Amino acid sequence: MRGEGGRVLGKTGKPFEIAVIDGVAELTICNPPVNALNSEGWASLALAIEALGSDVDVNVIIVRAEGKGFCAGVDIKELAADSSLIQKVNAGNYATFRAVHRCPVPVIAAVHGFVLGGGIGIAGAADIVVASECATFGVPEVDRGAMGGGAHLQRLFPVQKVRYMYFTGDSINAAEAWRLGAVEKVVPISELRDTALAIARKIAKKSPAMIRIAKESLNGVEDGNLEDKYRWEQGFTLQAYMSPDSDETRKAFVEKRDASFSAAEER
């Protein structure tokens, strides 16, 4: 619905809020405690981004979050309770990252705190990333019994750095991300939203037609197909889920203990 000052407010009951003003759409993830989304949440996020991209009143989109961090990815507790939902989660992730990457207008990711799993997918699919000084980027997929995120992480960081992060589970802080060219600006968290808005407003003043053509053109000259690469990874997520080790990692995460792979082999 349309609120005061031309703002468009998102529907209630979703894990995010939406406002549009002067050509800038602001989608704010707000799903405490860690902004991890379940299968329904990812599906609704994809639809919302697609709708914003099709809105003639939107010239640029900012995706940001409230709370402890940007996004901790998927809801591991949902998958621990019902592993069959992995297909639905995969579909939601794929649709969301595609919606960001293939969005007809530029998407700015304004990230803070933890940027994990699905958070990496959003940031890696975005056109511009700005980060708070407290932001950290990581893919703990191996420690969660899953795959995915490598294609989008590789859009942010060099190949060997990506493999180090993927195999070890180690994160990269905002300063290192800036040094490696993954983020446009690193600012205090109090300035993060205003920094993203300043960039968005600069873009929004341009010719909407020219910006949309530019976005499509730049996507067309990228090396390889990001969605195809991610789809390849998702096939290995399903393979990983058939392993007892995958089940053990999720149970260990939910129970807040170290995983025991010898125990998994005995089952």
From TrEMBL:
GO BP terms in the entry: fatty acid beta-oxidation
Sequence intervals crossing the membrane: none
Cross-referenced SUPFAM superfamilies: ClpP/crotonase
Keyword Transmembrane helix: no
Keywords, sorted A to Z: Lipid metabolism, Lyase
One Pfam assignment: ECH_1
Name of this protein: Enoyl-CoA hydratase family protein
